[in-house]
């Protein structure tokens, strides 16, 4: 059994396109120099945080692990539920298998980890639950331990800024390592993703957020180094996707409303009698139908094609979605051109250039689009020093961890990145 601690940190939305910024920052530069740096990591489709993090812990594609979107298909709800619970992932995961092997696991804001059977868990959960946020957080994670963390670091509030929340989680990660030395620690840092959604992918606020991220990591690992030499820890920094600038909304649910397949309430929610619905992924959107009806799907495809919508890049059929390994439930998947974003609203227009933009940056686009590529940096006893790899796939992360820690994860589609291993 390999007893080197492993710390996996997801740097949400830090991309290959940010390379000139991040590779020169003090902490990240030192990790790159002492470890294996993968400059371009191709993610999975859709490039959404929850499907990707499910792939990171399984080595399988969305069609195989079952998490094909951030959101469940609940168009009648004002705020749809996300795939919060770890049980949404079918089959083996790093968390489940490591726990079965008796390893001590900690996870901080890690997507799709609610109610996971692990020792220290502060999961990412709904920011607007029915009861109080703190009770909801405790019900979905390690209740008593969350109380302990709050007594040390103050309350973790869903309404705080993303920077403040990231800082809390990084502090909790260092504290937990100092006190309990988990075998595997997961941490998800979100501020770069948040800033890109707000400002677009190249604004100076993004450079600032990446500098703050570097500093946050540096301070966290300084604390960790007081209890264990960093050379004796396997550190895996990775991202899930990047973001592409978006300005112009497309509303394909308006097409469905015009075809009488959805009826809309005044507040924009969809009535329960919907027959078909496009669930947005930002840079792409997926069609779900209540009943299996290939004829209806063909009619919808024909209708959309007849509209010659400027911002549509590609339309994938059910068979093509299966080839992309994205979903076994979605009937059509539609990819936007750069600059365009799919908006869930079923009212007012199909495509607009004079509507105030929502998020100025987005993901969800095809993982092969260069501006959407992710990155990875590994350092520690398991990994080669001063090694650069140009291209890898995110589905290969779990098989690599599985090999290092012998977790016996079954049915993985990815393969081991042998090039990074000593
Ligand atoms: Zn993300």
UniProtKB/TrEMBL annotation:
Source domain of life: Bacteria
Gene3D superfamilies: Alkaline Phosphatase, subunit A
The protein's name in its UniProt record: Alkaline phosphatase family protein
